[in-house]
UniProtKB/TrEMBL annotation:
Keywords: Membrane, Transmembrane, Transmembrane helix
GO molecular function: transmembrane transporter activity
Subcellular location: Membrane
InterPro entries, A to Z: MFS_trans_sf (IPR036259), POT_fam (IPR000109)
GO cellular component terms, A-Z: membrane
Membrane topology: Multi-pass membrane protein
Native species: Phytophthora lilii
Protein name: Unnamed protein product
Top-level taxon of origin: Eukaryota
Pfam families recorded: PTR2
Length: 80
């Protein structure tokens, strides 16, 4: 097993840097590119755009909640 004193700071730094880069790079670009596919002058596409934003945020938050829950259990109990 690796040295725990060196692994914990590396894990924390990787977690927060990875979270920041992932949130900034993926979430911002995916939502902009997805919203760009709809015509703002067409009323049916305006409704589809609202639905897109709702589903996008729902899926992002459910995925984040699931992954944090799974990773916290994995870090406490070890490999599943």
């Amino acid at each position: 097993m690796a040295n725990s004193a060196a692994v914990n700071p590396i894990f924390i730094i990787g977690l927060f840097v990875g979270l920041g880069v992932g949130t900034g790079a993926i979430k911002a670009n995916a939502i902009t590119l997805g919203a760009d596919q709809f015509d703002p002058h067409d009323s049916s596409e305006v409704h589809q755009k609202e639905t897109y934003f709702s589903y996008f945020y729902f899926c992002i938050n459910v995925g984040a909640g699931f992954s944090y829950g799974y990773l916290s259990i994995l870090s406490v109990d070890g490999s599943s």
